[in-house]
C-alpha cells in the first residue's frame, strides 16, 4: 500500500500579489516563502497560493474549502468587516457556529466556532 504524507492545501489565484496582501494583511497568515507560489504556515499546515490565468475570474464552488477554527465567529467576522472584507452572516449549525467569506478570487473561507457545553 502507498504511504501518504500530507503536503499542502492550495487555492488558485489570479493575482498573487493581491492574494498575498489579503491573506497576510487581512487574515494575518505568516508568509513563509515565495517563488512561483506563495506559502503560508497556518497552525502547522502548509497553505499555498498558486497563480493561474486559467482560473482567473471563475468561482470554484466545489467541495474544497479552507476552514479555520476561532473562539468567536461573531468577533472574527466583525473584525474582518472592519478591514473591508465582505462577510456573510454567521449561521448556527449542529455543534457550533459557521461564518464564511471569500478571498479576492472568490475562494470561500470558513470560520468554525465549536459549541461549548452548557
General description of the model:
With 118 residues, the protein is α/β, with parallel strands linked by helices. It has two domains: 55 residues, 2,3-Dihydroxybiphenyl 1,2-Dioxygenase, domain 1 (Roll); 56 residues, 2,3-Dihydroxybiphenyl 1,2-Dioxygenase, domain 1, CATH 3.10.180.10. It has two helices and eight strands, in the order E-H-E-E-E-E-H-E-E-E. The strands form two sheets. A four-stranded mixed β-sheet has the order 1-4-3-2, with helices on one face. It has a four-stranded mixed β-sheet with strand order 5-8-7-6, with helices on one face. A hairpin with a 3-residue loop joins strand 2 and strand 3. The radius of gyration is 15 Å and the shape is globular. The N and C termini lie far apart (45 Å).
List the helices and strands and how they pair.
Elements: E1 9-13, H1 16-26, E2 30-34, E3 38-42, E4 45-51, E5 66-69, H2 73-82, E6 91-93, E7 96-102, E8 108-114
Parallel strand pairs: 1-4, 5-8
Antiparallel strand pairs: 2-3, 3-4, 6-7, 7-8
Radius of gyration: 15 Å
Number of strands: 8
The unreliable regions are: none
What is the element string, with H for helices and E for strands?
EHEEEEHEEE
What is the global morphology?
Answer: globular
Strand content: 35-45%
Short descriptors:
about 120 residues, alpha/beta, 2,3-Dihydroxybiphenyl 1,2-Dioxygenase, domain 1, 2 domains, 4-stranded mixed beta sheet, 8 strands
Amino acid at each position: 500500500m502507498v504511504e501518504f504524507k500530507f503536503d499542502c492545501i492550495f487555492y488558485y489565484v489570479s493575482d498573487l500579489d493581491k492574494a498575498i496582501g489579503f491573506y497576510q494583511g487581512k487574515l494575518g497568515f505568516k508568509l513563509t516563502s515565495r517563488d512561483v507560489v506563495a506559502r503560508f504556515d497556518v497552525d502547522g499546515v502548509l497553505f499555498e497560493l498558486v497563480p493561474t490565468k486559467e482560473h482567473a475570474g471563475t468561482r470554484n464552488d466545489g467541495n474544497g474549502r479552507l476552514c479555520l477554527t476561532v473562539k468567536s465567529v461573531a468577533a472574527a467576522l466583525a473584525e474582518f468587516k472592519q478591514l473591508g472584507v465582505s462577510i456573510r452572516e454567521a449561521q448556527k449549525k449542529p455543534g457550533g457556529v459557521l461564518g464564511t467569506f471569500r478571498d479576492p478570487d472568490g475562494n470561500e473561507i470558513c470560520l468554525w466556532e465549536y459549541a461549548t457545553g452548557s
